[in-house]
Specification:
Elements: E1 3-5, E2 8-10, E3 18-24, E4 28-29, E5 32-33, E6 48-53, E7 59-60, E8 65-68, E9 72-76, E10 82-83, E11 88-92, E12 109-112, E13 125-131, E14 136-142, E15 165-166, E16 171-172, E17 181-184, E18 190-194, E19 205-206, E20 210-213, E21 216-219, E22 228-231, E23 235-238, E24 241-247, H1 249-254, E25 261-263, E26 277-279, E27 284-288, H2 290-296, E28 300-304, E29 314-316, E30 323-329, E31 335-338, E32 341-344, H3 350-355, H4 358-367, E33 384-385, H5 388-400
Parallel strand pairs: 11-12, 14-15, 14-16, 28-33
Antiparallel strand pairs: 1-2, 3-6, 3-17, 4-5, 6-11, 7-10, 8-9, 8-13, 13-14, 17-18, 19-30, 20-21, 22-23, 24-30, 25-26, 25-29, 27-28, 31-32
Amino acid sequence: MINRLGGLLVPDELLGGIIINEILVDPSGSTGDFDTDGNGTASPTDEYIELRNVSDTPINISGVQLWDAGSDNWFTFPPNTVLQPGAHALVITGVQTGGSLPAGGPNDLAFDAGRSSALLNNGGDNVVVLDPDSNTYIQATYNGDALDDPTAGGSNYEGFPSTATRIGDGEDFGSDIDGFSIQRGPGDTFINDQTPTPGSQNVCFCDGTLISVADGEIPVEDLVPGQLVHAIDQGLTPVVWIHSRELSVDEVNANTKLRPVVIAPGALGHGLPRRELRVSQQHRMLVCGKIAERMFDSSEVLVPAKALTDIDGIEIRAVSSALTYFHIALPRHSIVLANGAPSESFYPGKQALAALSDAARDEFLTLFPELGDGNLASYGPARTLVTVRRAQKLAIRHRKNQRELVNKFH
């Protein structure tokens, strides 16, 4: 099922770089809801399949087909569809009235299969991606479904070429949780308990953020590897890796997922942050107090910044000038001070690593080769990590009870 490249596990690839990246099986259920098309309702047709180009060159996926047992060829990528390196191609089963295709990263593509009913079987199914020109295909299963043989044809895969060759042995994505997607991590690892992530993710600080260092504060863009920063658990700790991504005004404002969360001075409590703080939506902030302890059996938890927008002074905002996102990694996951507020350093979870470019991920894993198989026990996390949905409930309870998010601090 898995090939090895440079010592790292890599997934089955069609056309030298196209992989199955994410599957949203059941958008609605007792454990959560996800409204992919943004029409206000999590519907069965909000389910989707996402592919990704993991190569270093653009790949023409025109004519590539998605197949399903019983539904046969249910989607074909249109002519002149070229997927850029690192970009995603998402196919939603059916956009509903009042909905629209989700926006991803600058080069991401999204398509509507135009179906009025769900296609993916919640009890288990196969996802088959065929390139008719090369007569090759890749295949994945989930929820314990057996691997089909689409070349056998018949009523399940009517019209599928009997001479097609499967690349690899097929991949088992594991089991899904309603309202969450199954997302690929590094190599053959998968995560199934996080909010769906159509398009790319950023987990980082914006330029201009002041990071507490040995002799005061320094803008994050001026940090260099080896510089000592204040980590609230470890004390002065060296920066071991820095990565940045610059985005234009048009790129950020055209894609709501790339817009920063802006935290006004004092919005977290105890006068924190001391000045306006901008972080990416998935970047985690420290929340402390009795509400967190009651909800999570821990008085200090880390929550995605975008989950805190019910709090006065915290909002997702468009930008008027270009911005740069920065990752800073320490020898282990830590809590640093950003404009005085406690916030995480880079945490190499499955989503975060998968969202990096191949070059950046390889660079990071060269420093921490033991993390390549997803074994994070020695690295962190520094505190309990809370999902977006549960963090939103935490924020609502803080607002309702008029409690500060940071009501005690080291």
